[in-house]
Amino acid sequence: MKNLLDERKTKFQALKDIRSRIIKGTMPVKKTYTPEMRIKDIADKGTFREFRFGFSTGDPLGFPDYKRKKEEIQKNTGVKEAVLSGTCCIDGHNAVIAVMDRRFLMGSMGIAVGEIITRTFEYADAHRQPCIIFTASGGARMQEGMFSLMQMAKTAAAAEKYKRNGGLYIVCLTNPTTGGVSASFASLGDITLAEPGALICFAGPRVIEQTIGQALPKGFQISEYLEEHGFVDRIVRRDEMRAVLSQLLKLHEVPKMKTSGKEYYRGRQ
Amino acid sequence: MIEGIRGSRKNSELTPAERVYLARLEERPKIYDFIESLFTDFFECKGDRAGKEDRSICGGIALFEGLPVTVLGHRKGRSLEENLACNFGMPGPEGYRKALRLMKEAEKFSRPVITFIDTPGAYPGIDAEKFGQSGAIAENLAFMSTMQVPVITFITGEGNSGGALAIAVANKVYMLENAVYSILSPEGFCSIMWKDAARVKEACSMMKCTAQELYDFGITDGILREHEGGAQNDIGAVCMEIRDVLRRELNRYSGMNGNDIAAERQKKYRNIDVRFIVQ
Fold this sequence. Notes:
Chain A is of the alpha/beta class.
């Protein structure tokens, strides 16, 4: 008991130190919850292995400034694309995980993001593992034009194929999940979770207000609203995410069993 | 100025912005023109079976030269009154759910699905969002990727955003010469990229949304010629073009088994951007 108290005391002290350093300006403030931080909070320590697909995508439309902008973000943040994916263990359960990154052009989906998401599903399918995706995206990436729109068909097809083969697909909608991403793989989960207070929609509030010419009701298109209207299974806070995912994986970890002559398989072997 | 392009300019000389204008003309052939001249015995099916009928999607069963097919498409009107009744061709979730219902029936009865695209996009409204616009579109994309019957799509007017794609995941996509197919309406594109609505013309060329550009990208499978100055000048001729394509394509698919048809479609969308992915 005394140990526990001591532990809490030191933790509290550490937090206090960080806070004072932030206030003094000697330490940068971490505003965004990056995919790396999320995976660290969810996955068992040291189990995350990032996929290295090793492909690169070009600039199909020859869009002005697009290449330069991408390179600049890559240089400044070290982020390669708007999604990070790999394999990990969550509370001892194997899983494939992809986390979208809104720091990279608002998490928009172009060829690269569509391809990574598709390959993530394909990997999960081939290795018969559950697939967990955290979405955060402003929608299709405008700079890649029609190729971005085609990613909707590509990723939706990959999700559907994986699900039909018996795969478990858990999606967690985080702020924001809109447009082409919300209208493709983000809306196809077997289980749909959402973070509190996230904007989740197809058309954004500004577009709707412009179209209908009136103000939107309070809380419209926010996670809680979607839960109330039947589109989300559960709203999950970050501090309980790991526990909820672990529970879901456990619930789907049915041992190989015979059901009407057909062998069903879910989750870990 | 832009008025002058009706009839006086050659199609090959039109700029992307002029094509967008032509694609949106009220006189442009609409889904009911195509149904009337291409099919017989059309029986319209209405409603999503969950409480709503969305007139911006028109669908039903018909015969194409004796072969039963399912026809689906966006409905636009020719007058303000007609357009208000069909919401300017902008479907809500109930429209997509109706389409999904009809496609499921088409699969059950092994009918090819023929879709006609002409929409400014899915409707951005309170009810549409409340009743799950994104989910409805996503379900369509997922289901269409697995369908065992051939799906053939014609982009006849403007095809914008997920609102068009939701009934356009097809084995073959054909486009009329002056039709446009893009990720978003040029106006929406301007507002997102530059927050400036005045740069529409620039956006039209930047987005690469014309039939020729998309054919060169390998996103569409063919271009159908229109009468000089736009399809509205000779609706019959455009319908003849569509009829020839349909006859040829349906003939090709008639001998194929369902799994191969689905696999062909899946492969098409899996590899649609493959030339821009460098290993």
